[in-house]
Every structure is written in C-alpha cells, then in structure tokens.
Design goal:
Blueprint: H1 2-15, E1 20-23, E2 28-31, H2 33-38, H3 49-83, H4 96-102
Antiparallel strand pairs: 1-2
Amino acid sequence: MRESEARLSLAAESAEAGLWVLDLGDGRFWTTEKARELFRFPPDFEITFEAFLQSELEQAYVEIGQLKQRLQEENLYLREEATSGRAQGEIIGQSEAIRRVLKPAA
C-alpha cells in the first residue's frame, strides 16, 4: 500500500495535481502535498471528513463576505450614477451581461 501511495504521490507531483482519497471506514483523507496546499491544511494535520467540511464552510463564509462587500459597493455606485443627473435616459453599468444584452441593439 505504501509503495502505491508513493507512486501516486510522485505522479501527482509531476503533474502538479492535488489528489485526495477519503477512507470511508474511518473518515480520514489521504492527500498529496498539493491537495493539502489547495485546501489550506498544514502538512502534519490529520484531515477528517468533519475537518474538511468545517474548512469548506469557513471558506464559503469568507467568499460570501467578499461578495456582499462587492455588491454593496456596486449598489452605492449605481445609486450615485442614477441620482447624478448624468444618467438621464442612459443605461448604467459596464458588466459583461449588459454588453451582451445591448450588442444586438447596436
């Protein structure tokens, strides 16, 4: 078993791939160093299924906070544009979605 893990680790390192396997019997992960790096686990940390879920939940909350901040900034920008007087009869925004909608009209 150790020899096959060593071969798999070497192949993954060569490909710069992060691999992991969950042992359903005890709920622990075997991972390559790259997978630990990608999932932000230290080299000596025993990764359990619960620890993995907790880590992903924490990361999701960070991303939600970032998206919330971005949405608030965009909301403020659009409110300022809408009330500035420059936007009379104009479409406000420069997103890719707006460009796709307006492209057929141009």
